[in-house]
Design goal:
Length: about 350
Amino acid sequence: MSLHLNKNLSKIHLYWQCQFIGWSLVSIYWAYTVYTRDNYGFFYTLLNYVLDIAIGILLTHMYRIYALKAEWSKLPIKQLIVRVIPSILLLAILYVFISNLKWIVFRTFFVIKNVDFFKSMMFWDPILLTGLRLMSIWVLAYHLYHYYQKEVVTAKENAQLSLIAKQAQLDNLSAQLNPHFLFNSLNSIKSLVIENPDTARRSIDLLSDLLRSSLYEKEKGLITIKEELSLVKDYIELEKMRFEERLHLEISVDKIVHNFKIPTLSIQLLVENAIKHGIDLIVKGGTISLIIKKQKDFIEMIVRNPGTIDDTKRAGLGLKNLQKRLTIQYKNKATFNLTQTNTEEVEAKITIPFIADENI
C-alpha cells in the first residue's frame, strides 16, 4: 500500500513539475514581447509573466480534473478524439477571454485608466490561434503520456500473465504426469487389455489426449467453454476407470455460453481438485456437479463436490495460479471462491465478466 502511495505521489510531483516548467518556458515569449515592444519595465513584465503562467496552469489543470473524473484515459482512441477536439476549442476560447480580461485589468490599474471593455474582450486575433496551439500541444502531450503509461502497464501484465500461464502449464503437466496418476491409469488400462481391448484402446486415447492438452492447450490462453467441457468429459471418463461407480458427473450449461472463451483448463482444474480432495477421500464416492450459467453481465462456473475444506492445508499451487491468471486476464473483475456450502459439500466458483469481444 505504501509503495502504491509513493508511486502516486511521485506522479503528482512530476505533473506539477511539468506544469510549472512547461508554462514558464512558454510564457517567456510573451514576457519578452511586452518588455521589448510595450516597454512595460521589469516589475510589470514579471507580473504579466506570472499571470500568464497562472492562466495556463489553471485552464489545463481544470481539464485534467474533468478528464480524470470522466476516466477519459480508459476510452478507445476514437471515443477520446471525439471528446478532445471540442475540449481544445473550449480551452482556447476560455484562454482568449481570460487573457483579454487580464489585459483589461492590467491596463486599467497599471497602464491607462480608460479601456473599452467590450472592444478589448472581442480582441481574438492572434490570441485564439495561440490558445489553440498551446492547448492542443498540452492536451496531446497529456493523453500521449497516459496512453504510454497504459501500454507499459498492459505490456507488464501480459508478460506476467504469460509467465503464470507457462507455470500453470507445467503445474498441470506435472499433475497429469505424477506417478500416482500414471500408475493408476496404466494399471487400469493393463487390466483391460485382455478383458476389454476396445475399452483399453479408448483409455489410451484419452490419456494421450489429456497429456497433449496439458502441453498444448495451455498455450492458447483462452478456449471456448464447449472445448473445455470436452476435455473435462475425457478426464472424467478416464478417471471412471479407477473410481467406477464411485464417480459421477452432472453437467448443466446454458447454451448461450458455449462459444464464450475462458482461461484454458480452468474448469478442468476445479474438477481435478474436486476428485483429489473430495471423491478420492470418500469411500462411497459421490457426484460432482458442474454448472455454467450467465448471470446478468457475468459468467458463473460452479463445481460442487462432497467433502470438506481442510483449513490446516494451504491452497494448492494450481488454484493460486488460477487466481493470478483471473486477476490479470480480467483486470480484477473476475473472482474465484472456494467455500464450504454445508457440512458435506464444497463449492468452487469462478465468476468472470461477460465480454462481447470473446478474445478479450
